[in-house]
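Late entry, written up from scratch paper. The run itself happened at the end of the previous shift, but nothing got recorded in the book at the time, so transcribing now.
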Amino acid sequence: MYKTFYPKPEDITREWVLVDANDQTLGRLVTQIATVMLGKHKPEFTPGVDLGDFVVVVNAKRIHVTGNKLDNKMYHRTSGRPGGLKSINLRDLLAKHPERVIEKAVWGMLPHNRYGRKLMKKLRVFAGPDHPHAAQNPKPIEEVLSSSEE
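Output as recorded:
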């Protein structure tokens, strides 16, 4: 009889992963980020258990998208009041708040419940190349994902 493996909190090891978004395609990059945050790259992955790593994204303002998404993709928010709908396209959002583009895309790939909200606290996005998490010695995402495929 096989027993289901359920990782204990002391068995979980979290790493810091560095992602350089310079000239990366938005959707493909965010898929990798969501995979690392969920912990799907680890052999002990268990659905619903937080095994993911912390992710630091730099150069968010240098992200690349295909097609006409810069002008056609719209982000909407509302105040909940009549006439309170605000819309902004991807080009303007990248100019004003480039971090929010990646945060919104990652949120779209995570569960929309308290587990997903907990995972979003592990994401740090910076518009430029500098970040304050050098002390954590983040590994490049290519190194983390390639080691899981072996």
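The radius of gyration is 17 Å.
(Scratch paper discarded after transcription.)
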